[in-house]
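UPF0126 membrane protein, pasting as requested.
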Amino acid sequence: MLQELFSPGVQHALDIVGIFVFAISGALLAVRKNFDVFGIAVLAEVTALGGGLFRDLVIGAVPPAAFTDLGYFLTPLLAAALVFFLHPQVERTQFAVNVFDAAGLGLFCVTGTTKAYDYGLGLTASATLGLATAVGGGVLRDIIANEVPSLVRWDRDLYAVPAIVGATIVALCIRFDTLNGFTTAFAIVTAFVLRLLAMHYHWRAPRAWNRRSSAQEPAEEKATAQ
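Structure tokens follow.
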């Protein structure tokens, strides 16, 4: 199905771009955590390839693309080297990195869903793996960096929801036999725009209704520390 929507060259180029920007985000977190060069490379690789690797193992696409295409493996290392030597400059372009990251989120949630369906999964399972493809690397990145994954933190702008929307659009298009280049692009752009809006307006998912939690708000934590 992917081959019907994109030529192999276009598909590969889009994958490489998405892998690169995801790797940048992983390498930047490694620098902030004061990791050494090996740690920077590991976090870049895990962030960029973790979601796709998980998807391929689940659907039985082995060996995974990350191990059969040298470009997929080397691209995160290039991103890690860039951050290692130029991280102050990269930090200053954080907004641009976030924009490309949002584009990668939209792309991977769509390609992940279609690839899972191609391997015989149902629509719900395919959409779920589309979500996992888009956010899985970031979850692994945060776990390795000893942080609560951004995916489940209430004080982070919506990240999974745009991916869920994009994957759901693709699943519905498959269900009603309307998946084509236009609807695929629509799903990618929808997830991309939703993520950008969430970052701009700081949209966040609601927490439990009438919650009674001992967890402190960030402002309360600062006040307590003072």
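Note for the archive: The chain has ten helices and no strands.
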